[in-house]
Write a structure and sequence with these properties.
- By secondary structure, the chain is α/β, with parallel strands linked by helices.
- It folds into three domains: about 5-220, Class II aldolase/adducin N-terminal domain (L-fuculose-1-phosphate Aldolase); about 270-430, Class II aldolase/adducin N-terminal domain (L-fuculose-1-phosphate Aldolase); about 445-675, Rossmann fold (3-Layer(aba) Sandwich).
- Helix content is about 45%, strand content about 15%.
- The chain contains 27 helices and 18 strands.
- The strands form three sheets. Strands 3-2-1-4-7-6-5 form a seven-stranded mixed beta sheet, with helices on both faces.
- Helix 19 links the parallel strand 12 (about 445) and strand 13.
- The structure holds zinc ion (ZN).
Length: about 675
């Protein structure tokens, strides 16, 4: 592992806290040291209080912040004397610890201090760095892990057996270090948890971390415990220089191979309909829609194919704090998803009953990730961010398990110890406070004509309620327009059957399924050619064929959707029969019939189909086009505009809010509705 220290950047830091932010980010940017909110850091300094008096303060990482992106505001300033007094108490509940730490903060608006704040306080150095480094934890998670750690580090580290993070851990370290000669200690290693380094100099504390973790990596390399996927370049250059033999998953050229995997290196893709079915089963079990994110990397496929899968997958997480994201165990999907899931749920309930104490509320018993035999892993989350966090953690866990196996056997903490963290009083308290999920959380919405301003408003409204968006449009700009929050933009011509199939497959491969389709098929008359109404085929294509194509191809996935529905945004022009408008109007009537037929066909599959007929949206049509339309109807422009039934005008928002509402549970029992906007005929 390489030090990322940059003297120039470090010397630009204005004060202790600035420097603390800088080195925290150095640690946080390395996923082999910390992952998604893991680890914490602190700096001891003096801060002037309200009265101008200098107080000794520990700035410690606040909960909810990530070391990789932390800012000064992410550190909580806690009075040192309070923390040191707390360490001397015989007992203290973690809830009280959090409460009194909060009361001892100089800034009440700062985030809650880390639960490891007391531990940071009792280490008598200015800078304290704490990570859950993969390689070190992987070694400690093996049979006889402690003697391996001792072999690597000798007597210069204090090894603390596993105890739950929080007051008990701080107390244990306090007692163990009362007589310690700190100058002789390079680090504290917490078995099955992580490592602390420290120094009065920020650079030394940080580089000690890098050096000590490098020693763990070299130990793994020397003992043949290497797998594909992490630190490949560094480890191979070390391999080259040391000439060490290792027999795991690398050839000498450095190419990763997969042991006994018969399908070496091939991209193996799970059947997408199977993926959608798995997602639906998990969502049903969770009583909450989730996305299903596939990891079919070579490593994940190899892992899912291992003959010892049942044993190694059912050991537990790499460090106990991962349990909050991943649960203790994954679902291993056998030949029958229903049977596998039933077994998983009943095992989880048994685990709860065996370890529960009074007052604990059983968490949802559905898995947060699954191993699909031969295909890799699947992570489940309410949005792509959550699914990605779970995927990152499980990916690192698989590496650690594979390494642990090569070191003689991966051995996680006991079920009881993992349970205690999963059902920690602080986590249970969060549970009681947690708000209900947003309406469209975990739902995948396919939007067509996604570059139109009306559909963009619809997307905004759906996203505000938690939806994940798959945006289709012929305009190539759609790819760049839809990138935030996990959304994807796909170039798609709804008149091109193969093109639609590829686009739909991409959506399902990315999110695991499709729940809602908001299909805008109302044609917009924007030029003379359209407004003449003679272009029969064109009108037919735009207003009817596009919808029919999409419905046909999306149907298999909607059948596996969560409360699936189709919202058709048609056009109200069908009522404006007159002059040369007649052909256009005829096509629009086809829309109504199509909507009726689609409703009849899909309702029996539990898919709701509702249609909106908005009147002309003035803001979306230029004046020339409006003029043309008025002429076609034999009206002056003023009279044409006056045709609005409510006389209050219609904006794109009005249609968008209706479309997003129809897709919601408010219309959960409504299908076949034909809703007219600003017209009553
Ligand atoms: Zn920790």
């Amino acid at each position: 592992m390489k030090s990322l220290w940059d003297n120039e950047k470090a010397s630009a830091c204005k004060n202790d806290l600035d420097l603390r932010v800088y080195t925290s980010r150095l640690l946080g940017e390395n996923s082999f040291l910390v992952l998604h909110g893991g680890g914490n850091t602190s700096v001891k300094t003096k801060v002037a209080n309200f009265f101008g008096e200098n107080e000794d303060v520990l700035y410690v990482k606040g909960s909810g912040w990530d070391l990789g992106t932390i800012e000064a505001a992410g550190f909580a300033p806690v009075k040192m004397d309070t923390l040191l007094k707390m360490a001397k108490l015989d007992s203290l509940s973690d809830s009280d610890m959090v409460k009194y730490q909060r009361a001892a903060m100089l800034d009440p608006t700062a985030p809650n201090p880390s639960v490891e704040a007391i531990l940071h306080a009792i280490i008598p150095f200015k800078f304290v760095d704490h990570t859950h480094a993969d390689s070190m934890v992987a070694i400690s998670n093996t049979a006889d892990g402690e003697s391996k750690i001792r072999e690597i580090y000798g007597e210069k580290v204090l090894i603390i057996p596993y105890v739950m993070p929080g007051f008990d851990l701080a107390k244990l370290v306090y007692e163990a270090t009362k007589e310690a000669n700190w100058d002789e200690l390079e680090a504290i290693i917490l078995m099955n948890h992580g490592i602390f380094t420290f120094d009065d100099n920020a650079k030394v504390a940080y580089e000690n971390m890098i050096d000590l973790i490098t020693k763990a990596e070299k130990y793994l390399l020397k003992n043949g415990a290497m797998v594909c996927g992490d630190n490949i370049e560094e480890e191979l250059s070390f391999f080259g220089s040391m000439g060490v033999f290792f027999s795991s998953f690398f050839t000498k050229s450095g190419k990763c191979f997969l042991g006994d995997n018969k399908r070496t290196g091939e991209a193996i893709e799970i059947d997408l309909l199977d993926l959608a079915k798995i997602r639906k089963r998990i969502s049903t079990e969770k009583k909450q829609a989730v996305l299903a994110k596939i990891n079919n990397s070579e490593k994940a496929i190899h892992f899912s194919n291992m003959s010892s899968l049942d044993k190694i997958a059912n050991q537990g997480p790499l460090t106990p704090d991962h349990v909050i994201r991943t649960k203790r165990l994954p679902l291993v999907i056998g030949s029958n998803i229903d049977e596998s899931l039933e077994q998983y749920s009943s095992d989880y309930k048994e685990y709860f009953e065996e370890h529960k104490t009074d007052g604990l509320v059983c968490l949802n018993h559905a898995p947060n990730w699954a191993i699909a035999n031969g295909y890799g892993t699947i992570s489940f989350g309410k949005n792509i961010k959550e699914a990605t966090i779970i995927e990152d953690i499980t990916d690192h866990t698989m590496t650690a398990i594979l390494k642990g196996e090569l070191l003689g056997g991966y051995q996680a903490l006991s079920a009881k110890e993992i349970f205690d963290v999963e059902y920690w009083e602080l986590e249970q308290a969060k549970l009681k406070k947690s708000a209900t999920c947003a309406e469209f959380a975990g739902k995948v919405v396919l939007i067509t004509d996604a570059m139109s301003s009306a559909q963009k408003i619809c997307v905004k409204l759906l996203k505000e309620k938690g939806a994940t968006i798959a945006a289709f449009d012929k305009d190539p700009e759609v790819v760049k327009t839809y990138t935030k929050g996990g959304d994807i933009g796909i170039i798609c011509d709804l008149l091109n059957f193969p093109n639609i199939k590829v686009a739909i497959d991409k959506v399902v491969r990315t999110f695991g399924g499709i729940d809602i389709v908001v299909n805008d098929i109302g044609s917009k008359i924007s030029n003379e050619e359209d407004s003449t109404g003679h272009n029969w085929q064109k009108h037919l294509d735009i207003n009817v064929t596009k919808h029919q194509n999409l419905s046909k191809l999306v149907l298999p996935y909607l059948k596996e959707g969560i409360n699936p529905s189709i919202v058709i945004i048609a056009s109200k022009e069908f009522i404006s029969v007159g002059n040369e408008h007649v052909i256009y109007t005829a096509v629009e009537n086809d829309q109504i019939q199509l909507s009726n037929n689609t409703t009849q066909e899909l309702t029996r599959h539990g898919i709701r189909v509702n249609t909106i007929y908005p009147r002309k949206i003035h803001s979306l049509v230029n004046e020339k086009a409006l003029q043309d339309r008025a002429e076609l109807c034999g009206l002056s422009l003023d009279d044409y505009l006056e045709e609005d039934e409510l006389k209050i005008g219609l904006e794109a928002y009005d249609t968008a809010i209706l479309a997003s509402t129809i897709a919601s549970s408010a219309f959960g029992r409504t299908t076949g509705a034909q809703l007219k906007v600003d017209c009553f005929i």
